Hints:
By secondary structure, this protein is α/β, with parallel strands linked by helices. It is built from eleven helices and nine strands. Helix 2 packs across helix 11, helix 5 crosses helix 6 and helix 5 crosses helix 11. The longest helix has 20 residues.
Amino acid sequence: MDQLSVEHLLGIKYLNTNDIDLIFKTADHFKEVINRPIKKVPSLRDITIANLFFENSTRTKLSFELAQKRLSADVINFSAGQSSVKKGETLIDTVNNILSMKVDIVVMRHGSVGAGVFLSNHVDAKIINAGDGTHEHPTQALLDSYSIREKLGSVKGKKIVIVGDILHSRVALSNIYALQLQGAQVKVCGPTTLIPKYISNLGVEVETNLKKALEWCDVANVLRVQHERMDIKYFPSTREYTQLFGINKEILDNLGKKIVIMHPGPINRGVEITSDVADSDQSIILNQVENGVAVRMAVTYLLAQQIKR
C-alpha cells in the first residue's frame, strides 16, 4: 500500500508531491464516504486520538473531531483553558499524562512555533500539527489546495493571491509551501506592515494594489485580520484597511473575469470581504469546510496505517 514519506504531519515543508497526491486521492475516497447516508467507516476502530488545543479553536477542532469520529476512532478532547497547564504544568508533562492513557495519535494546536516538532522528538505517538504559533497550519493548506483542485481541475499553473494579514498567518506560510510544491504561482497582497520581510526568499511576489492582484489571479485566498496576535497597530483603522484591502461585489464585478474566492474562516464580514462576496457563487468557502473533514480523515488514516501494533 502507498505510504506517506513522513511519520508525522508537522508542516507542509516536510512533504513531497507524492505525499500530497496520496492525501488527495485518499480524501477523494473519504469525501464519497461522508456523502453517503451512513457516514462512518470502521477504519480506525482500534485507534485512540487526543486533541490537544492549547489555543482557542472552534472550526479546526470540530473538523478534526468529526473526521476522527467518521473513522470510528476513540477521541479524547483537551482544552488548555480548562486544564493543569494553567497551574504551570509543562507541555511534556501534559502529553506524557495523556500518552500514559495509551494514545496513538496527538492532534495539537499550540502558540509556540515548533511545538509539534518538539513533541515528536519526545513522545511515542503520531503528531498532527493543527497550528503552531504564526508558523504552519498544514491541514488548512491541504484542504485549500484540495478545494482549488476540485474547483479548477488542478493547482498546477494556477495563479493564487493570498490577501491580508500575512505576517501573523500560519495559513499563509503553509499555503505558499503547498501551492509552490504543486506548481502554482503565488503572490501576496496586503499592507506593507503586514507582509513579513522574509517573503521574497520564498519566491513570492508582493503586490500592494488589491485591484492589480485580483486582475492577475485565478484564486484569491482572503485571510482574517488577526487582531489577537497584534501587539502594536499595523494600520490606522479597520475602516481604512477595508477601503484598501476589503473585497466587495462591485470590485469582483469590475474585474472582467470570474475569480474564485476562498477564506479559511472565521470571516470578519464587512472587513476583509462583504457578505455578498462570501455568499456568492464565486466563493468556495463552504466547500473548504466540507473538504476539511475529508482531508483530515485522509491524513489521520494514512498516519494511522504506520502505527505498529
